[in-house]
Specification:
The protein has about 625 residues and is an alpha/beta fold. About 35% of the residues lie in helices and about 20% in strands. A hairpin with a 2-residue loop joins β1 (about 10) and β2.
Amino acid sequence: MQRLFEKMTLGKLTLANRFIFPPIKTAYGTPKGNVTDRHLTYYGQIAENGPGLLILEPVSVTAEGKEHPKQLCIHLPESADELKKIVGVIHAKNRLACLHLNHAGAAANPKATGVIPKAPSALTCPTSGASSEPLTETEIGGIVEGYRSAAEKAVIAGFDAIEVQAGHGYLVSQFLNSKINRRTDRYGQNRLLFAEEVLAAVKAGAPDLTFILRISGNEMSPDFGIAPDDLAPLLKMAKSSGIHAVHVGMGSACFSPPWYFHHARLPEKPQMDALAWVRTQTNLPVIAAGRMGRVDRTVQVIDENLADLVALGRPLIADPDLIEKWRAEKPDEVRYCGYCLQGCLHRVKNGEPIGCNVNPEIGQPVLEQSSKLMNVLVAGGGPAGMSAALYLSKRGHRVTLVEREKRLGGQFNLAWQAPGKQKMQDGLDHLAFCVNANAETVLTGKTVDMDLVADVKPDLLVWATGAHQKVPIIQGVDSQYAMTSIEYFSGAKSVKGPRVLVIGAGRTGLEIVEKLGADGLDVTATKRTDPIGSMMEMITKKLTLMRIEQMSNVTLMPHTTVKGFETGKVVVEKDGGTIELAPFDTVIFASGMLSAPGPEPAIAQAVPSVEVIGDAENVMDIFTAVHAGYALASKY
């Protein structure tokens, strides 16, 4: 592990360590594509005792190549001056800055560009649903010139390095890919030509900067992903083109988003195989990117000589101090990323700024000590309550946290038990660790009552008691062996089989369905409305439905309402018609949650100020709950 903290030469640069921050879209920019104060805070947080080189979020070399409405720009007259602000912040932390250049091609977002996407050949990107038109040679020349101009601006802005995106199914990869590039002109006859021109243009524009090539080791799409034979020539010519390192990710933005974003559920072996293959194609230093935020995984890729440097993206968003904690051999103190994509990708795709389920501080100014210190009583030790207790404590308040169960976590204790979410437990454990380390008093197995209020004498009561299961009123349901989703995940009741009915097929319902289906039970899930899997992060939903579709023992029934349980049958209404189903051995309610009741009037009247937060105020998700606690602390 200590090898990763050694200095390393890359081109003319000397990196402080062998960690890299990869390009991650933030949606922090203005609609025009300029830098904001939140950018400066964010990059400053990552750079502080952080990776030796920080690669900025992707910028498009022309306006038509953008992916996001709030993407930073390099093609505007003021772009160099704007980006110089971020470079200054990074340099002030004694770290190096790299500009990531891209053109999305067929993956460009028409909502961000206002024009039809352009690609080597006509192509529809399943991720966006947009169809692209073939580029003319004149347009290709304009894009190449865009790369040269961007490189010149990188020098003006003070960047130390440039990275060119040549993978992930973006424009350079599209030209290389024989499955996509069907041109008959010189750019089709020599599919390497566009990449050669791009690399030459960048080198001409910034001859003295360190030069990194970004690729996908495997685009993980048999039908549309680039083949090794198409990618190998690029790697063979990389060194002669002035490249100093190869940055290896996975997947395609259009055809394999789960791999592009390195979702938690995916196996690790394909990535290891891809890194091993890249090693056979080039002797340049290799940067390994994707789910590297655990010590054992990082050590493995170095020990097996699969990489020379390691990229940490989401793990540093979850904990910007991760590298320093690893260096100090304090891995147990790291706030670990769960690779769930809920607070980062899910928000950015919806047009919201990047965030993190377990780190509401990212991109935010440091919380100062409060000018008016208070006694605070927090009722509820779930995500909202723990977050409020932690950040109120950090502001100097005297905090007592009370949780009725024997351990902190609330429904966070159950969330990580869903398929593919096991790594989320690490984030919960760290939050509980921090609460115990910072709050004045933590009481478990207790509830807030008048005696406790009289003892603590709080100036502020934070009510964060979460939510409980919504159980629909259905004729004959009392005759069934039934349980709530909470009882199922907590193990309070055991499932009897073989036939199980899950009422509610939103996020929680689908997770239960997949888990039971994998256990071999005969599962039917109903949902009154569409869509199935509502509130799920889109990639998680896609992967979950793909697995369920492969289970012949699982039936999903949207637009279906359970009307009654009768002797020998269950009556449901689907699309206006009545259907009778065979009886079930277990019924599980996953039909939404209801906010828990607020404090009793006597308790509320005994405290000068009361705040209701998290699911107790409005049932949402872990991200919203954790950020509600932080927002409350910011207020006081």
